Amino acid sequence: VSEIKHLSLVSAVALMLILLGGSLWNAWYSDRLTDRLAGQLEQAQELASHRDWEGAARLSQESFRLWKAHDVYLHVMMRHSDTDQILKMFRAVEQYLALEEPDQYTAANAELICQLELLSEMEQPSLVNIL
Fold it and tell me: How many angstroms separate the most distant Cα atoms in the chain?
């Protein structure tokens, strides 16, 4: 009986360590991904501010392709409502770029970057996220 309890305890600790490791990996990975996406969108914003709409559209499309390339990860690990909202924002940014509307594009792009940062923040191990 004592040996069974010991084995159960070891199994429970091992499972908790695996879950902790997975959570920390997910926090690191989501931060890395969203930083990369936001960086591309910030570069696109800089190009748009210099009226390089084609360059801004190219970088924004690259960012969107990167987002879509991680679609399975995002839908498994993140809340669907959050990922759906970001998808809508990518579409809005795309439209404002096509119309070459600087004010609307700047606002939509800033909101998209902010949502990406919030998405990453939600996955970070912090007291706020635990409570």
Answer: 75
Report d(CA 81, CA 71) in Å as an integer.
Answer: 13
Residues 6+ apart with CB under 8 A from 50: none
Per-residue pLDDT tens, the chain, 131 aa: give them: 688 888 899 999 999 999 999 999 999 999 999 999 999 999 999 999 999 999 999 999 999 999 999 999 998 999 999 999 999 999 999 999 999 999 999 999 999 999 999 998 888 877 776 66
Distance CA(50)–CA(120), nearest Å, equals 29
Q: Are 30 and 120 in contact (CB under 8 A)?
A: yes
- Burial class of residue 31, CB neighbours in 10 A (0-12, 13-18, 19+): middle
User: Is this prediction's pTM over 0.90?
Assistant: no
Burial class (CB in 10 A: 0-12, 13-18, 19+), 18: exposed
Question: Do residues 70 and 127 touch, judged by C-beta distance below 8 A?
Answer: no
How many residues are listed for the chain in this entry? 131
